[in-house]
Here is the input.
Amino acid sequence: MDQAQTKRIVLGITGGIAAYKAAELARLLVKQGIEVQVAMTEAATHFITPATMQALTGKPVLLDQWQDDKGMAHIQSSRVADAIVIAPATADFIAKLAHGLANDLLSTLCLARDCPLLVAPAMNKQMWANAATQRNVQQLLADGVTLLGPASGVQACGEEGMGRMLEAEELARDILEALQNPSLSPALSRQRERELDGVKVLITAGPTYEAIDAVRGITNRSSGKMGYAIAQAALEMGAQVTLVSGPTALTKPLGAQVVDVTSAAEMLAAVQQNVAQADVFIAVAAVADYRVSKPAAQKIKKSDASLTLELIPNPDILAYVANLPQPPFCVGFAAESEKLHEHATAKRKKKNIPLLAANLAQDAIGSDDNELVLFDDAGEHLLPRADKLTLARALLNHIVGMKKI
Here is the structure.
């Protein structure tokens, strides 16, 4: 990942049994390209070792204010962080934060920060329900701290109730959302109704690759970024996402079921296996229109003679889904090089789908931002130029507005 774009967090671990989940959380964040610096309280080391966290993050764990020769670990670490995440956050540590105490490295680091603070509570249900804890939580919210959880469930003490720390995968998703869109608090997103809760969304993304011989093939310049952004946005909105992906170099969206394919035939087969459960189908993939009728099993050797390849049409995956007896809500994509409105309108009519998103290929392929024009029965709707995750969120909101799924 480009150093200029690398996101950095400080992961603070306090002394609770849920500290074991911090190891998985760190692993998931590192896998997503996040640089993780762990800071632990002394109590946390009784539940999970600094050696484990160092092995997972590749960085020495911050344990003591006086680790560096200047005694400025709290300043140095907080200044380079895009966010500080406390997971687990015990009742004791939440009280420290609420009252501005700074008697160890981690609490001092939080007080000295100039970046967002995200807190994942973890404690017994009585401790969570205690009036003092609830006052402290309300103070943190008033101070602009983001609260991630807690959840209700079976606790380490054997009791069941509110206070359990969110699972690592759910925390990682919320942290990524906060890093990608700082203006949208994950705490608020938890409290709002998620528009796609329980909705099953099937998405195709990326290019396909059609073999010519053992080493050559027909493909295109699609990066898969738009499809992956839609998958991420759908996950944020509570959807159950299946992503059928052609060959890309992108990191798989956390929480999505990803089916890797190569050719158009493989993509069609994967869609056929999953479409019966889908409520929404979004065909973003740039599927090759043609394939070689008889690809060579071995490499075709170069010669001075001309070479003729017979190309035959690939299956139309979107048309197949749209023409099922009970199709899901279908959304198509069109990347055009000219006459955007004319070609997009004709494609939507031919496919007989309720919504089509179109853009100019030369402005969109491989880029991190572009603009989209949405075509539906009500007319045309411009989504102004923005990063692809922002466009993905706007597209899904448009879908929700069209059809109460």
